[in-house]
Design brief:
Elements: E1 31-34, E2 37-39, E3 45-48, E4 58-61, H1 69-75
Length: 79
Amino acid sequence: MHGTTQDEPPKYTKTVLKKGDKVNFPKPGDQVAVKYTGKLDSGLVFDTNADKKSKPPLRFKVGKGIVIRGVCRGRKGGS
C-alpha cells in the first residue's frame, strides 16, 4: 500500500484552473476558495467539489489547520 508516514510530506497533485496575477498571494489568515478532488493512490475519488456545479468551493482561512495539509499546501503559492 502506498502512502505517507508522519515524517513524509503528503502527496498531492495541483492543477491550476485559473492563473493568478503573480502579485497577490494568500497569507496566513486570509480566506481562500478552492475546488478540489481527493483521490487515493488507486485513482479512486473519495471526495470532490470540482465537478459539481451546485456545490460551492471549499472556503477556509490559510494556515489555521482547518483543512487537511494537502489542501492547504496545494493552495500555497497561488496568486
